[in-house]
């Protein structure tokens, strides 16, 4: 079964295996077939193909393993997704094992988000992307039951969505120039750093465009004095902030840098979930929230609210993901200062229509739930 077929049919595959059914027709059939009042979870691995090899300070890759999730309840389907970049420690096996161990049929009321997320925590620690896939599907389902997108349910104004950055990875000068050309619709560029030619990379970009850049060192800067020198150099070149300049363990050095840097210092690898936000405030000016770290939308919303209450900057990021998880994240975009929601644009085999970037700005679809539709 190909992946789109899975997403359309999954559990119903057994019931309607012989005859292909259009999605809308299947929706009708689903209402009759699964009006059980039980949550029914199904999942399927889906490998994401990257448009360009992804070069970070410490490794390179051309695919990202993922798992697509369906959550059915009373004739409606919520979609979710887990994306597992290797450095986060989850895999297709671990996600499928976690999801396969769940029994969501015990929940007759899908609105018990707190209970359901507490159950996921009780099954096993960590497994953050696996938990996020269930959380996203649950939010999609609940939004569809309520007939509203989550930004409206949260009371957020979509006009407040920031511009998204578009990532320019570490690469040869010619490829960087090509990527900058491809990124011309975007009003902010994100630059991955952490190699010896960091300044050269910025100079190449600056030879092509004056748009603001934000810098992600991915823990690649080893010397705090050099990191400070880079912050000053970047501040003179229209840089907005520096993300995770040094190793996440180097809290004192990062606090030292934060005290002196003309640019805000944003935590990414340093933090994962809600309890980490308060710790991050000791050494960083802001946090980068990602659904695959936070276990999904429920905790991501809480993290954003807490960080703002602590006076911190809030950035919203993503992994390489289909438009499913990226559009789910976009529901939070009106709450944040910076958005880095280009993960779906970096893959060649998206499954969903969802978030759009209009004139550089994050634009959330006016559809219920997380706002996605399967690409047929
Ligand atoms: Mg980062």
Question: Helices, strands, pairings?
Answer:
Layout: H1 3-9, H2 23-33, E1 40-45, E2 48-55, E3 60-64, E4 66-73, E5 76-83, H3 92-100, H4 113-123, H5 128-146, H6 150-153, E6 165-168, H7 173-182, E7 188-192, H8 198-208, E8 213-216, H9 224-235, E9 239-243, H10 251-260, E10 265-267, H11 274-280, E11 286-290, H12 291-294, H13 297-309, E12 313-317, H14 323-330, E13 338-339, E14 352-353, E15 356-358, E16 361-363, E17 373-374
Helix pairs in contact: 3-5, 7-8, 9-10
Bound molecules: magnesium ion.
Explain what this protein looks like in three dimensions.
The model is unreliable at 11-34 (pLDDT under 50). The chain has 376 residues and is an alpha/beta fold. The protein contains 14 helices and 17 strands. It starts with a helix and ends with a strand. The protein has an 8-stranded parallel sheet with strand order 6-7-8-9-10-11-12-13. The chain has 2 domains: 3-147, Enolase-like, domain 1; 152-374, Enolase-like C-terminal domain (TIM Barrel). Helix 3 (92-100) crosses helix 5, helix 7 crosses helix 8 and helix 9 (224-235) packs parallel to helix 10 (251-260). A hairpin with a 2-residue loop joins strand 15 (356-358) and strand 16 (361-363). It binds magnesium ion. Magnesium ion binds next to loops.
